[in-house]
């Protein structure tokens, strides 16, 4: 902090979004505090694309498995394999991954604080204050105070920073996701398990409105599902999926769940001194639930926006984070939102969706846009072919 005891930026939340923001700001020479509530491993399938590994310098030792195919499984158990061409999908364990990012931010110069965010307030002189309670403080301890020029709220879905400061943040729609971490088989006792393949199950029995997954993680596996339907038993569904695949025999290490936001907020900043990033801003790709890469990118864009605001005093700079993100990814999010709405709404449609995945154009475009986060420009005709194939399926002209 400066000689008046004021940080340039306080980042609340040390997940992929917050740790990336704090790292970037510290490297730019800004004074930054990174506040995180320790003690809970973020429930997450942990799949990241090569673009994330590249853009955020993720070292090899954090990648616990390299995935070279996805198997799409339909309600009638039809299987379509989609081999990854030119690369792999990386799997990370979030306890190790998130801690690595926080340590990296601290090594770059961020002041790391462990405890719970309480409130954003303003002193009589107008300076922004973040109050927080250190981990392990006895009950009744008065919150500590951090004076700052700007706050980045990266405290995940159901963000407290968002609820307190940004209109609409209290009602981001969410899917609730749940998974079980189990010990991977040592031999080939589970016939259909492949340690280099992610299985994605589209079946109303396991999820009425999302999908279920089996993601290898080296010596562990994440088996999970998601749904926005209140009353649907996610735990029961994962139990059934494990029984159907023989994975009920494997030792369970952890059971955990968390909300996944479904829609980016219309506004990520409060027009004064706060900008949100990652799940706190509602930024997870619809249909896939992919959030790690997008959270890290949001963290980076929020850091740039905060740095500009601190340098110029112009709070309009805070809005650039959302503008830049939506310019790069708004179209893909929109398409994925429509896909989720349409293809995940009945087993008949899920069956057709898995069938479409047999198409080589669909496979290539899906992987290229997942891996590199860019809509493919090299072969515009592939988009046209997929568009017409999609329409044919949509209106039932194609044979299912
Ligand atoms: C079951 C499940 C499976 C998923 N699988 C995948 C996947 O395979 N691939 C993928 O890309 N995405 C996946 N996601 C989504 C992904 O996990 C999130 O989008 C991503 O973690 C968002 O990062 P974040 O930094 O915005 O938030 P988070 O990772 O949620 O981090 C928020 C941080 O804020 C801290 N915090 C919260 N409240 C406070 C407080 N009051 N005070 C201080 N600190 C606080 C928390 O300790 C945490 O460290 C999955 C999500 C779920 C729930």
Plain-language structure description:
The protein has 400 residues and is of the alpha/beta class. It has 3 domains: 7-43 and 94-172 and 263-333, FAD/NAD(P)-binding domain (3-Layer(bba) Sandwich), CATH 3.50.50; 63-91 and 173-261, D-Amino Acid Oxidase, Chain A, domain 2; 345-394, no CATH class. It contains 10 helices and 16 strands. The strands form 3 sheets. The chain has a 7-stranded mixed β-sheet with strand order 6-5-12-13-14-11-15, covered by helices on one side. Helix 1 packs parallel to helix 3 (94-107) and helix 6 runs antiparallel to helix 7. The longest helix is centred in the last third of the chain and has 24 residues, at 320-343. It starts with 5 loop residues before the first strand and ends in a 6-residue tail after the last helix. Bound molecules: flavin-adenine dinucleotide. Flavin-adenine dinucleotide binds at residues 12-18, 35-37, 42-48, 116-117, 154-156, 160, 177, 179, 224, 258, 260, 278-280, 284, 289-293, 295. Flavin-adenine dinucleotide binds next to helix 1, strand 2, strand 3, strand 8 and strand 11. Residues 7-74 form the FAD/NAD(P)-binding domain. GO terms for molecular function: geranylgeranyl reductase activity; oxidoreductase activity, acting on the CH-CH group of donors, NAD or NADP as acceptor. It comes from Falsiroseomonas stagni DSM 19981. Keywords: NADP, Oxidoreductase. This is Geranylgeranyl reductase.
């Amino acid at each position: 902090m400066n000689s008046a005891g004021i940080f340039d930026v306080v980042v609340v939340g040390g997940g992929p979004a917050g740790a990336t923001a704090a790292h970037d700001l510290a490297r730019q020479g800004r004074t930054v505090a990174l506040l995180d509530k320790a003690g809970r491993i973020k429930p997450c399938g942990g799949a990241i694309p090569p673009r994330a590994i590249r853009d955020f310098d993720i070292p090899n030792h954090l990648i616990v498995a390299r995935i070279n195919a996805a198997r799409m499984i339909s309600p009638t158990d039809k299987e379509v394999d989609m081999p990854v061409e030119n690369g792999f999908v990386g799997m990370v364990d979030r306890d190790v991954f998130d801690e690595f990012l926080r340590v990296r931010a601290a090594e770059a110069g961020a002041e790391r604080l462990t405890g719970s965010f309480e409130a954003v307030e303003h002193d009589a002189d107008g300076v922004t204050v973040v109050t927080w309670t250190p981990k392990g403080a006895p009950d009744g301890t008065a919150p500590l105070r951090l004076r700052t020029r700007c706050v980045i709220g990266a405290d995940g879905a159901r963000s407290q920073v968002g609820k307190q400061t940004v209109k609409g943040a209290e009602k981001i729609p969410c899917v609730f996701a749940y998974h079980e971490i189990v010990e991977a088989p040592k031999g080939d006792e589970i016939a259909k398990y492949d340690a280099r393949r992610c299985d994605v199950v589209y079946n109303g029995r396991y999820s009425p409105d999302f999908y279920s997954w089996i993601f290898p993680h080296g010596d562990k596996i994440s088996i999970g599902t998601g749904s926005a339907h209140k009353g649907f038993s996610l735990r029961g569904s994962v139990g059934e999926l494990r029984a159907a695949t023989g994975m009920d025999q494997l030792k369970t290490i952890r059971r955990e769940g968390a909300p996944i936001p479904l829609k980016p907020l219309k506004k990520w900043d409060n027009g004064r001194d706060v900008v949100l990033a990652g799940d706190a801003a509602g930024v997870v790709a619809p249909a896939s639930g992919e959030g790690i890469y997008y959270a890290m990118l949001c963290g980076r864009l929020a850091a740039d926006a905060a740095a500009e605001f601190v340098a110029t005093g112009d709070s309009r700079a805070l809005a650039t984070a959302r503008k830049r993100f939506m310019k790069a990814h708004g179209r893909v999010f929109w398409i994925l939102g429509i896909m989720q709405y349409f293809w995940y709404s009945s087993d008949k449609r899920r069956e057709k969706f898995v069938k479409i995945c047999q198409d080589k154009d669909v496979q290539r475009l899906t992987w290229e846009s997942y891996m590199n986060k860019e809509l493919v420009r090299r072969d515009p005709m592939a988009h046209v072919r997929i568009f017409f194939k999609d329409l044919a399926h949509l209106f039932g002209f194609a044979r299912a």
